[in-house]
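Worked Example 4.2. Read the sequence first, then its structure tokens.
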Amino acid sequence: MNLFVLIALAVGLSMDAFAVSICLGLSTAKTTLRKALIAGLYFGVFQAVMPLIGFFVASRFADIIIAYDHWIAFALLSFLGGKMIFGSLSSEEQAEKENSLRPKQMLPLAIATSIDALAVGVSFAFLHVDIVLAVLLIGITTFLVSMAGVKIGSVFGTRFKSKAELVGGVILVLTGVNILLDHLGVYDGW
């Protein structure tokens, strides 16, 4: 997996955290740097740790299912991307305004937005991705995107939430298709 695909994947994975960060930014009229940093750290760290966990768990089973690795990566990324796309098209508003950045509120949000990164980490084990580079790119991208989301939420409101989820979902699905076509020999990948 080349650097371009890893960056696109990092952006795609960060879109859930971006959407939640927008909601966090909505909760106050004035967004402080502290609030943006806290959100960025929670989401960035969890988005980086989850693929690492998935990678190490899947690495133990890589020899067993190596013949199916590209199908697993395709299925996981397409499912997660499809879920994000469907969520972005939903007419039901699920954003809740949080008035606090205490761990009691932030931990569940950080875990919920990083579950897809766990599945991506499983895919990384089968694709022999440089896990250190991938984890750093995902963590840093999510950190920066989440900080921006808090600010955007305080300025623009919920206007961008569904668009962010849609873009993230499309990126994940396209990455899955790219992996599958590359491994099937249809073309040489991105």
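Now turn to a second chain, presented in exactly the same format:
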Amino acid sequence: MKKLILFIALGAFIASCGGKKEEKKDGFSVNRTKAEDKKETANEGVPVDLDNKGVGPIKDMTFANEVNAEMAARGEAKYAAICTACHMAEQRMIGPALKGVYERRSPEWVMNMILNPDGMLKEDPIAKALLKEYNNAIMLNQNLTEDEARDVAEYLRTL
């Protein structure tokens, strides 16, 4: 009987000595890159180019010094109806954020992208780079008239 009690005691001793070590952490941490780093990486392949006019019907376009409020209002309505599915003003979605677009692209390029996205995606180097950056999500042709596209372009100035 003494051997049995000794055997059980020895087993209990071995079991208690070889237990798991628990590490307690005071919370958790997540390693993420800063948004600024991601933005720089995302824009590496898509240069800013204000001289590129794109491919399409618009060869020359200049804006008046003042935003035309009537055109911008019509453009805002059209933008809300068809563009917001893929674009937000200040945040990337399926397509790029459009706030400050005229700091990166010429007015002609923007108009040609609105009016002729198929041709732009086939021939324009910036449009091709954007297509690649946005996981080959193509911009669909919304079949806008030049006047409707001009209204949207005016609205984009207000963002």
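Notes for the reader: The chain has a mean pLDDT of 81. The radius of gyration is 30 Å.
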